[in-house]
Write a structure and sequence with these properties.
Elements lengths: L6 E8 L12 H26 L5 E6 L5 H7 L5 E3 L6 H15 L3 E7 L7 H12 L4 E5 L5 E6 L17 H11 L4 E3 L9 H16 L6 H9 L7
Parallel strand pairs: 1-2, 1-4, 2-3, 5-7
Antiparallel strand pairs: 4-6, 5-6
Helix pairs in contact: 1-7
């Protein structure tokens, strides 16, 4: 299986950060404008982490609105591709994206990740591609809301996403169960968490404070923003 793939692609699924459109669950504590700033910082960091893995994989930006592609090209120049996979829901966009990749680039390991998991490291993305080269047909990084921060697929499973989305409760567990019903070899990597609720934001602040105190790496754009807001008090 080691020679199965000749290239690797990591696709970031995201949307343009606009007030009233992103991080709605954070509006009670941040309001729409600060929530948008946070979403933009999260997006900047995930692109930076993927750029750091450029010797191991190419990066694509998959956005939900084709009208925003030019904005992403200007903000994040030099990536491999910018596209808007068809579909009204995330599940439909994932399905169309993976199907196109399998049909056009069958010797490419392909993973998709979300833009709002700030502690999902470049090494984890590389590990996902490595797991696929070793034979995993589905590789996932769970998030702690029951979904996934990263998902890689090595072969077509008709109806996989449509069978479990757009419902979010136990999303990853149901995706894995359906994949195994179709005979896929599945692998899970250590979980991460996304920033969706006020509790998530509080946990992120605590985690970043600890990392900074230990001189450990942090997502720079997010840490800088939270520090400017006074949410990362220093000892």
């Amino acid at each position: 299986m080691a020679g199965r793939f000749e290239s690797a692609l990591t696709a970031i699924f995201t949307e343009r950060p606009l007030p009233g459109r992103v991080k709605l669950h954070l509006h009670p504590v941040l309001g729409p404008w600060l929530a948008t700033e946070l979403a933009r910082a999260l997006q900047d960091d995930v692109v930076a982490r993927c750029r750091a893995g450029s010797r191991k994989f190419d990066t694509a930006l998959c956005v939900d609105d084709a009208a925003d592609v030019a904005w992403f090209e200007e903000r994040y120049p030099g990536l491999a591709r910018y596209e808007a996979p068809p579909g009204a829901e995330l599940g439909e966009r994932l399905a169309s994206f993976f199907t196109l990749e399998w049909n056009e680039r069958p010797r490419q390991s392909t993973v998709a990740l979300v833009a709002d998991a700030p502690l999902l490291a470049t090494d984890t993305v590389i590990a996902a591609h490595r797991a696929m080269r070793r034979g995993a047909e589905l590789v996932a990084v769970p998030d702690e809301h029951g979904g996934f921060a990263l998902l890689g697929l090595a072969r077509d499973v008709p109806g996989l996403f449509e069978g479990v989305m757009p419902a979010t409760e136990n999303l990853l567990a149901r995706t894995l169960a359906l994949a195994r019903e179709h005979g896929l070899e599945c692998a899970e990597l250590p979980s991460s968490f996304d920033i969706d609720t006020p509790d998530d934001l509080e946990r992120l602040c605590v985690t970043l404070e600890h990392r900074l105190a230990q001189s450990e790496p942090v997502p720079l754009a997010v840490a800088t923003l939270l520090d400017a807001w006074g949410l990362l008090p220093r000892a």
